[in-house]
Design goal:
The protein is mostly helical. 76% of the residues lie in helices and 0% in strands.
Length: 186
């Protein structure tokens, strides 16, 4: 729990301080999102080819400095189009964490990060929301959480055996398709 809190804090602080800039400037740039998808895909493909020698195998036993460094990598995900899980997993791999433990910790770290981002965004938009929005927001939040729980076991098994190349190629395809669509349709 302490490790998750240590990893959560950098993105929480930067996200809170830069919230308005992220929402009003960065999220308004589909081209930036596509470019970040492509960059993330290239990074995942490159990292997947590196033969890391993992030192850390148990998410409950990382040194505090590893938790903090993974949390700093999570800050990259504040840029739209950058995968939160991708940035934390790549950061963990670079900190000598094995693939399964990297994916596992990324999932654990997602819980406070997503709840915190959701709560902060809800607070910032409290003036434009009404009680009629509550059921829609609640259903969306619960559906996303349940879907994540169902998918995580498959993901952990998959990345343990096959790595992250599939996700890298997917990001490249989506990013390139997005840039092509922006070029054609503006």
């Amino acid at each position: 729990v302490i490790g998750i809190l240590v990893a959560f804090l950098p993105a929480a602080v930067i996200g809170a301080l830069a919230h308005d800039f992220i929402k009003t400037i960065l999220f308004e740039s589909p081209r930036l999102i596509c470019i970040m998808l492509i960059i993330g895909g290239v990074v995942l493909l490159a990292v997947d080819r590196i033969n890391f020698k993992p030192v850390h195998h148990n998410v409950e036993r990382f040194p505090l400095s590893v938790y903090l460094k993974i949390g700093l990598f999570q800050c990259l995900s504040l840029i739209p189009g950058t995968s939160r899980s991708g940035s934390t997993i790549v950061g963990a791999l670079l900190m000598a964490v094995d693939k399964r433990a990297a994916a596992e910790f990324s999932f654990f770290l997602a819980m406070p990060t997503m709840v915190g981002a959701f709560a902060f965004d809800l607070f910032k938009n409290r003036n434009v929301l009404t009680s009629a929005d509550l059921p829609i927001i609640s259903v969306g939040f619960i559906a996303a959480f349940v879907a994540a729980l169902i998918v995580v076991r498959f993901l952990l098994d998959y990345v343990s055996r096959r790595g992250y190349a599939l996700f890298g190629w997917w990001r490249l395809l989506v990013g390139i398709a997005g840039l092509a669509a922006l070029t054609v349709w503006g």
